[in-house]
């Protein structure tokens, strides 16, 4: 029921407005975890840890919860969840929220990488290694 509308207790109790979407709520939680990676009250490596947790959580979410909803869409399931969203609508909202979260994670990583460098900690890619060091990785 929209704000300002009245109805019976039964109607109000069954209203989709009363329910939070489990998946979207989880993404909001993961957003809060990511925000901790920007909290300057935390030491640098703790902020890096929060970024890592956020990325790991999102990977697992995509592999399990998002994949399950995609399967429901492929199977033609259109039954709405208690919050009133169909699987397809949930997938659409999850994709938008996930893309924003990924962009913020990447931005945070670039910033933290600069802070790490300023502290004498460099994160190298394979292309940054010399031939001998690359050989050691191959062992």
TrEMBL record:
GO BP field: polyphosphate biosynthetic process
InterPro entries with a match to the protein in the record: PP_kinase (IPR003414), PPK_N_dom (IPR025198), PPK_N_dom_sf (IPR036832)
One Pfam family here: PP_kinase_N
GO cellular component: polyphosphate kinase complex
Kinase found in the keyword field: yes
Keywords: Kinase, Transferase
Polyphosphate kinase N-terminal domain: residues covered: 19-123
Gene Ontology molecular function terms on file: polyphosphate kinase activity
Domain of life: Bacteria
PANTHER family given in the database record: POLYPHOSPHATE KINASE
Name of protein: RNA degradosome polyphosphate kinase
Organism: Hyphomonas atlantica
């Amino acid at each position: 029921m929209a704000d300002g509308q009245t109805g019976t207790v039964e109607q109000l109790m069954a209203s989709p407005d009363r329910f939070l979407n489990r998946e979207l709520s989880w993404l909001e939680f993961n957003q809060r975890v990511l925000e901790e990676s920007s909290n300057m009250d935390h030491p640098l490596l703790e902020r890096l840890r929060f970024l890592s947790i956020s990325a790991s959580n999102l990977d697992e979410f995509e592999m399990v919860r998002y994949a399950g909803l995609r399967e429901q869409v492929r199977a033609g399931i259109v039954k709405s969840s208690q919050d009133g969203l169909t699987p397809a609508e949930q997938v659409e909202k999850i994709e938008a929220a996930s893309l924003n979260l990924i962009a913020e994670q990447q931005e945070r990583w670039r910033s933290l990488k600069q802070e790490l460098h300023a502290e004498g900690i460099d994160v190298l890619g394979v292309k940054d290694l010399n031939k001998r060091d690359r050989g050691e990785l191959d062992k």
